[in-house]
Amino acid sequence: ITAAADAWACGAAALPKPWKPQKPVLPVEGMRNVLITSALPYVNNVPHLGNIIGCVLSADTFARYCRLRNWNTLYVCGTDEYGTATETKAMEEGLTPQEICNKYNAIHADIYRWFDISFDYFGRTTTPQQTTIAQDIFQRLLARGFLLQDTVEQLCCEGCQRFLADRFVEGTCPFCSYEEARGDQCDKCGKLINAVELKNPQCKLCRGIPVVKPTQHLFLDLPKLEERLEPWLEQSWATGDWTANARYITRSWIRDGLKPRCITRDLKWGTPVPLDGFRDKVFYVWFDAPIGYLSITANYTDQWERWWKNPQQ
Q1: Which residues lie below 8 Å from residue 69, measured CB to CB, with a gap of 6+?
Q2: Each residue of 84-113: pLDDT tens digit?
Q3: pLDDT, position 72
Q4: What is the mean pLDDT of the chain?
Q5: Structural domain boundaries of the chain?
Q6: Which tens digit of pLDDT belongs to each residue from 167-207?
């Protein structure tokens, strides 16, 4: 308290001079370097106050605090643009998925500018850098044996002549009987779902009843990681700042045993899968979208790895 009172009595002139980072902002030896990201807003809607308060504003407040502390700070964000939600919105508005993304990316950027959100860079996930980095991560997983192939039974709409991935199908949740569950998860109970598990499934496009057909897909072999993941989690829970909710959800996944997770989809709108036999498929958005944090930084600076592969700073 005494130190604070003394500092206040000295006035603003005694404060250290504000740090003016170089452009682009890169880690600086000997300084505290802080990389901040907001959860990437999805591109198929107009953001509202809840979206901004939920993730963007809190990160912006922290970025401003870090800059006031003279910490070398980079704050990036951008729109999440692949996936079935984009395709369905494009169909609703009579536009292509790329046109929908261009439209709503501009709307998002304008609204955040109006609110004076202090992004150093606001990008998007439909870029060449996203494709390059996502495919590189995929190739590394493949080379290290963390992927497997399997034939899966998948819902197919014969009227639309397409497999129904994720949000193209709705039905009753097999776990809690919620009647508007999607083909990838239930928003009421939070359980992950395979579309064929839905009761009373319907094609979201034509409301027809789909049939089950086999198709080949690629999976993350998550069970291979269990033995390494459990001790890491125990250490991280003991030393990190995990929320009670995050601990509970993670523990439930470990308790039930990790399952292989499909990372490909029978869609056109997405990052192409660079493997023979799967080149007519794209990556599932939840494999692809988190890589957007890296690719958006890569669009900001070609030295992006100094932020993402530099734990010493």
Answers
A1: 32
A2: 889 888 988 999 999 999 999 999 999 999
A3: 96
A4: 92
A5: 19-137+285-309, 154-213
A6: 789 999 999 999 989 888 898 998 888 888 899 999 988 88
Contact 51, 112 (CB under 8 A): no
Which fold is adopted by the domain 19-137+285-309? Rossmann fold (3.40.50)
Tokens of 25: 């902002």
